[in-house]
Amino acid sequence: MKRSGYENRKKAAGILLTAILTIALTACGNTGKTDSAAASSASSQITAAASSAAAQTAAAQETTAKAAASSAGQTGDTITVTDHAGNEVTVPKNIQRIAVCDIYPLPSVLCIFFDSAEKIKGIADASMTAAKNSLLGQLYPDILKADTGYIKGSEINTEELLKLKPDVAFYSAGNEKQGEALRKAGIPAVAISANKWHYDCIETLNNWMSLLSQMFPENDKSKISADYAQKIYDRVQSKVKDIPDDQRKKVFFLFQYSDSMISTSGENFFGNWWAQAVGAKNVAKELTKDNAVEVNMEQIYAWNPEMIFITNFNSAKPEDLYGNKVGNYDWSGIDAVKNKQAYKMPLGMYRSYTPGVDTPVTLLWMAKTVYPDLFSDVDITKETKDYYRTVFNVELTDEQANAIFAPSAEAGKVFTN
Predict the structure, then answer these.
(1) Average pLDDT over residues 153-179
(2) Does 3 score more than 90 pLDDT?
(3) Distances (CA, A) of 340 to 42, 225, 334
(4) Short-list 178, 179, 172, 252, CA closest to 204
(5) Nearest 5°: CA angle at 18, between 14 and 22?
(6) Res 55 pLDDT > 80
(7) Helix (H) or strand (E) holding 345
C-alpha cells in the first residue's frame, strides 16, 4: 500500500536503527574505555541519532500534511473540498461523527476506508438492511448501532438528524433538495454522485475514494484502490476484447422484481456497464431512460436473454425464476431459464450492482460466470482474499470470501429493517 508518510517514517526508522547498531558496535569494540564510559558515550550518540531521525520523521510528516492540505484546501481546523455537485464545502478537519443520507453504498465504503464503523452515526434503512445481511455487519458490527430514524426514502427529518450531532452529512448529488435542507439546518453537506461518470462502477468508485481521501488524507486509499481495479479491468478486457459480436452472451439484469413489476437496466444504468465490462450484450440496451426501467414479460421474451443476473435490490433467487414462484410471470420459455443460467449477484460490503468496494472482484466473478472457459484460471475465493488484503489490509477467511457470492435473500428487502 503506497502511503508517502508511511514510507518516510519507515526510512527515518531505518536511519535510526543503522545509527544505533553502528554506535553500539563501536562502543563494544573500544577497549580503551571503561564499560561505563563506553556506555555513556554510546548513550549520548544514540540520543543524538534518535533526535536526528525524529527530526527527519517530523519533516516528512509535515511535507505529507502540507501536500494533502494543498490539494484539499486545508486551513486551521477546517478543510474545504469540492463535492460531486460542484459545491465548495467546508468541513471540520477532525471529523468524528458522520451521517449518510440517500447514497446507500457509501456507509460500506466508509467502513472499509476507515477499517472501522466507529465514526458512522447514521445511515438509511436500505444501507442497514444490506449491513445486517452481509459481511459488513460481521466485520464492522458498530455499523449495526447506527441510527436510521432520520431518513425515509429520500426525505430527511433534520430535527432527528441534528440529535446525532453530525460533523458532516453525505447525500446524493442528484437530490439537491436534500442538500439544501442539510445546509439550512447548519450541517456541512457533501454531495456524492452515483451517475456523474455514466454509471461506470470503477470510475465512480475511484472518484468516491478520491474525495474521501481529500477529506481524510491520513486514510488515503485512492491510488492503491484505483490501480488494483484498473489491473482487474485490464485483465478482463484482454480476454474478452476479441470475442466475435455474434458470440457475445446476451444478458438481462433483473433489478427489481415483485408480484406487480419487473425493472431492468437500459443503456443508462449500471447493468449496461457490467455487460460491456465483461464482453457481453445487455439485451435491454435499446431502452434509453435513465436509471431503472420497468419492462414486461413480452419484452423479455422478445429479447430472450441467455443469462439473467438478479440484483440484491430484490429478494428473488434463480429458483424463483425456474419455478415461476413470483406473481403470474412465466419464465419457462426464456433460454436463460431453460438452461438454468440465472445468477444472484454478489453481496460483500454492499449490493454488488452499484459501485462499491466489491466492484473489482464482482467484475472477475461475472466474467468467469459469463465465460467460464476464458476465465478457468480464476480462483474467485483466492482473488477476493488477495484483493481485500492488498487494498484494505483486511484478512478474510475462505468462508467469509465465499459468503460474498451466496447472499441472503433478506438483503433484497431494500426499504425495511
Answers:
(1) 96
(2) no
(3) 75, 35, 10
(4) 172
(5) 170
(6) no
(7) none
